[in-house]
Specification:
- The protein has 263 residues and is an alpha/beta fold.
- The protein is 36% helix and 28% strand.
- It is built from 11 helices and 13 strands.
- The strands form 3 sheets. Strands 3-2-1-4-5-6 form a 6-stranded parallel beta sheet, sandwiched between helices. It has a 5-stranded mixed beta sheet with strand order 8-9-7-10-11. Strands 12-13 form a two-stranded antiparallel sheet.
- The chain starts with a strand and ends in a 6-residue tail after the last helix.
- The chain binds 1,4-dihydronicotinamide adenine dinucleotide and oxaloacetate ion.
- Oxaloacetate ion is lined by residues 121, 185-188, 215, 234, 242-244, 247.
- It catalyses: L-aspartate + NAD(+) + H2O = oxaloacetate + NH4(+) + NADH + H(+); L-aspartate + NADP(+) + H2O = oxaloacetate + NH4(+) + NADPH + H(+).
Length: 263
C-alpha cells in the first residue's frame, strides 16, 4: 500500500480523495492549526492523522501532494524536500517567486528528492517543453472563466463581475504578474511559463465571460518546431468554481503513477 500526505483539505484534495486508486491511501493531512481540530473530528473514523506541520509525521510518505495554495507551498515545501520526500505541487504560481523556486530546488537537490510540477487544469505541457528544446518565439495563454470563478480575486476591482454582459479581458501581462495577482486562478500561467519561455516572456490574458460555465485555457505557442494551439474547456469543481476538475485529476494521476512501473 502506498501512503500519501496531503497538504490542504479543500475542494481539490477532497476530489482527489474521492478518486484515489486502489493501492494508495491518505495517511496524513496537513492543515493550518486553526482547522486541525475540526478536521480531526471529521476524519475520526479513518486512519488519517491530521497534522498542522509536516514534521509531525514520523515515517516517510511515498508522495506528498500539495493542494493548499501558495502560502502552504512556501510554508512546507522546503521541509518536505529536505526530508527526502517527493513533493507534487498544484500551487505552481508560488514558483513565480524566484527566491522560493531557488530554495525548493536546492532543498530537493540536498534531500535527494524531487519537486514535481503537476500539469493541473491544463494539457500539452509535454509538447510545449519538448518544443522549447529548439527555441520558442512566442507563448500566449488566455484563461476564460465565469464571473463566479473570478469572485474573491482582484478581478473584482478591474471589472464589475455582477453586471459584465460580454466576454471581457480584464488583465494583460506576464505569467509572473498573473500568478502573483491571482494566486487561486492563474497557477496554469506559471505552469505554462515553467514549461515554455519563463515567467516574464509568457504573455497572459485573463477573461471573464458571463456566457460560460467552463474554465477555458487556450495556449498558442510558436517556434522552430512549428506552431501549437490548444484549447481546453474544463468543468469547474462544484465546491470551488475557481478550480477545474482536471487539476484534481492530474493529482490523482500522480498517485496512480506510484503504482505503475511504466511512466
Ligand atoms: N495548477 C492548477 O491548475 C491549479 C492549482 N490550484 C491551486 O490549488 C489550490 C487548492 O485549490 P482548492 O482545493 O480548490 O482550494 P480550497 O480553498 O478549496 O482549499 C485550500 C485548502 O488548503 C488549506 N490550506 C491553506 N493554507 C494552508 C497551509 N498553510 N497549510 C496547509 N493547508 C493549508 C485550506 O485549509 C484548505 O483546506 C489553490 O489555492 C491553487 O493554488 C487550483 C486550481 C488549478
Ligand atoms: O483550475 C483552473 O481552471 C485554473 C486555475 O484555477 C489556476 O490556474 O490556478
Amino acid at each position: 500500500m502506498k501512503k500519501i500526505m496531503l497538504i490542504g483539505y479543500g475542494a481539490m484534495a477532497r476530489e482527489v480523495v474521492s478518486r484515489l486508486p486502489k493501492g494508495v491511501q491518505v495517511a496524513w493531512v496537513v492543515v493550518p492549526p486553526e482547522f486541525r481540530e475540526k478536521l480531526a473530528g471529521e476524519l475520526a473514523d479513518t486512519d488519517i492523522a491530521v497534522l498542522d506541520s509536516v514534521t509531525q509525521a514520523y515515517t516517510a510518505p511515498d508522495l506528498v501532494l500539495e493542494c493548499a495554495g501558495h502560502a502552504a507551498l512556501a510554508e512546507h515545501g522546503e521541509t518536505v524536500l529536505r526530508k527526502g520526500w517527493p513533493l507534487a505541487v498544484v500551487s505552481v504560481g508560488a514558483l513565480s517567486d524566484a527566491l522560493l523556486y531557488a530554495k525548493l530546488r536546492c532543498a530537493a537537490s540536498k534531500g535527494h528528492s524531487s519537486l514535481k510540477i503537476l500539469s493541473g487544469a491544463v494539457a500539452g505541457m509535454d509538447g510545449l517543453a519538448a518544443a522549447r528544446e529548439a527555441g520558442l518565439e512566442e507563448v500566449l495563454y488566455v484563461s476564460r472563466k465565469s464571473p463566479q470563478s473570478w469572485h474573491g480575486s482582484p478581478a473584482e476591482t478591474l471589472v464589475d463581475l455582477n453586471t459584465v454582459d460580454k466576454a471581457t479581458v480584464f488583465f494583460e501581462g506576464s505569467a509572473g504578474e498573473a500568478a502573483r495577482l491571482f494566486p487561486a486562478n492563474a497557477n496554469v500561467a506559471a505552469t505554462i511559463a515553467l514549461n515554455g519561455v519563463g515567467m516574464d516572456a509568457t504573455r497572459v490574458q485573463l477573461v471573464v465571460d458571463p456566457h460560460t460555465h467552463r474554465n477555458t485555457h487556450r495556449i498558442h505557442a510558436r517556434g522552430a518546431f512549428g506552431e501549437m494551439s490548444i484549447e481546453l474547456a474544463g468543468h469547474p469543481l462544484p465546491s470551488n468554481p475557481k478550480t477545474s476538475m482536471l487539476a484534481a485529476l492530474s493529482a490523482v494521476r500522480a498517485c496512480r503513477q506510484l503504482l505503475e512501473p511504466v511512466a
